[in-house]
Design a protein that fits this description.
about 140 residues, 6 helices
Length: about 140
């Protein structure tokens, strides 16, 4: 079943982010992503693309890994389009969630993981336990 014309028209807004062959791969992968049930891995996306329209798996993997496109440019185009469409004449309020971002390290000022106030208590309470010995009844033991 071909994708609706309105969907393809939307995806063509991003044509300037890609080369001509890259645009086709982008359209196929994003359409497959929208239709893919379950986990959206590259292999699953590739399997959703109809066999008569898809290229070899390596073409998609190579394009994602080292194709001539920039995720930053793609996001810029998307944000510009969304703002023009939904908030061109009014104030735009953004609510952002950074809970999935790792906020620790030497270069992140004031960030880190803090568990307890007392370091001595922390050491004793969170001491790793020995792993349990597990026996598999289906294997032969010497």
């Amino acid at each position: 079943m071909p994708a609706p014309a309105s969907w393809i028209t939307f995806l063509r807004l991003f044509a300037s982010c890609f080369t001509a062959p890259g645009q086709l791969l982008f359209e196929q992968l994003v359409t497959a992503w929208a239709l893919c049930p379950g986990r959206r891995t590259l292999t699953r996306l590739w399997s959703v693309i109809p066999a008569e329209h898809r290229r070899r798996y390596g073409a998609y993997a190579r394009w994602v890994r080292k194709g001539k496109w920039s995720p930053d440019e793609l996001w810029r185009h998307l944000v510009v389009h969304l703002v023009e469409r939904w908030a061109s004449e009014s104030r735009l309020t953004l609510l952002l969630d950074d809970s999935l971002v790792n906020k620790s390290g030497r270069k992140v000022d004031g960030a880190g993981y803090f568990h307890m106030c007392n370091p001595v208590e922390s050491v004793h309470r969170f001491r790793p336990k020995r792993p349990a010995i597990r026996v598999n009844p289906y294997t032969k033991s010497g």
